[in-house]
Design goal:
- This protein has 22 helices and 8 strands.
- The termini are far apart.
- Helices cover 47% and strands 6% of the residues.
- Strand 5 and strand 6 form a beta hairpin.
- The protein has a 4-stranded mixed sheet, with helices on one face. It has a two-stranded antiparallel ribbon with strand order 1-4. A two-stranded antiparallel ribbon has the order 7-8.
Length: 503
Amino acid sequence: MIGQRLEIRQGQGLVITPQLQQAIKLLQLSNLELEEFVEAELERNPLLQRDEPEGAEADAPEKAADPVADQEMSFGEGVGQDSVAAMDAGSDDVYGDAAPGERTSDRLTDEAQPGLSDWSSAGKGGVVFEGDGERPDAHEPTLWEHLQAQASSAGLSPADHGIALTLIDATDEGGYLRGELAEFADRLGVDLARIEAVLAVCHGFEPTGVMARSVPECLKLQLIERNRFDPAMAALLDNLDLLARRDMAGLKKVCGVDAEDLNEMIAELKGLTPRPGAGFGGEPAQTVVPDVHVRPDPAGGWRVELNADTLPRLLIDKRYHGLVQAGARSETEKTFVAECAAQASWLVKSLDQRAKTILKVASEIVRQQDAFLAFGVEFLRPLNLKTVADAIGMHESTVSRVTSNKYVSTPRGVFELKFFFTAAIQSTDGAASHSAEAVRHKIKTMIDGESLGGDILSDDRIVEILKETGIDIARRTVAKYREALRIPSSVERRRMVRGACQA
């Protein structure tokens, strides 16, 4: 029988409120996105105003939150710890036992909580789209995102991956690498030869010619890919100034070709792309403003400070609040004033908590990676979100939000906080983790020694050998590292050995 009936169920669960949604969203906003959001809130809420120290008077509005930049922080104390615990809730705890039909933004709309923005449909930048449900076009990857994705799959060691990310950050919108390699080597604490080796790998990225240091080098990379680079073409690239002056006689002489060959070479150059990065749209290049500064401490160690220039300083105008509250006559006016006051108070507290959380996470990352700051990229430690989250008593999702689109200025340059998270291979005996690069080197050494013993090692056998040496690794990881090293499978290697023997 099919019928209807009413049931009463009792359960526990954390229902995410619009205020909590706002606090969580503020964590992952970059300083530029945060500035846009604060500007919008200043226009919407008449009780909010910026802190202007220059014009401060004796009867200035009461300050709602103290800046946390440029001072030592004591975490786990003071007001706002309840909001910290709430904001650090894991994604799997948000709805608890709520029924599937209840897991919507029905209870989070402005009708349910007047005066509060509905963040349930907010995008990455915290912008709520209104209207008839239309959304902007999907985000197109920028040149830098495209290059970073290729660097992540290039099979580089953690140190070399860090070098590649630094070079990518120094690439302009046209696809050219700006900066001297010797300067990068000095800043990262590695040899110039290592920088050149990583750059050679990056020159294999798409689009061809990207990260070249000059127009001739960019065209050279494209010609090499087409197998059209020869001594005559090299001479032509070395004398592009003669081509610009249309000095054909001089070009024929330096290239050692006749007029017909020269015309064909020039036609080939016209078919190349002098600006390989021009095909990527996306967001325009913007100067990176660090959220955190790391400086050597005279007493030893490192001093971690928030960049005060990126922290919005908001005040609640208590005097104006009293005036409009006293002048409110209707219930609608009184409700509006109360909602503005509550939203302003929560926003100021959320901004203050955001700053404290960023400083807390950044301080732990600096503590974990102090060897990198002291000695260079070769000393990057294996680090993941869980390690940092456990150390500071937060959820991994909170650490992930904090490190998204946040930058730190160090004596070795400006880096995204995610730069400091590198892969690690666990040890079977509980000892220190092994770096991924060291494991890759062991795999390559074992396979290189196959020809001596005549026994071809399968991926499963390599896993067994590594576990015997204390390295806990999965078979799929061995296969991934082997493919990154461009080493054929054991079946293909056996075929190659048989072919060599028959020959």
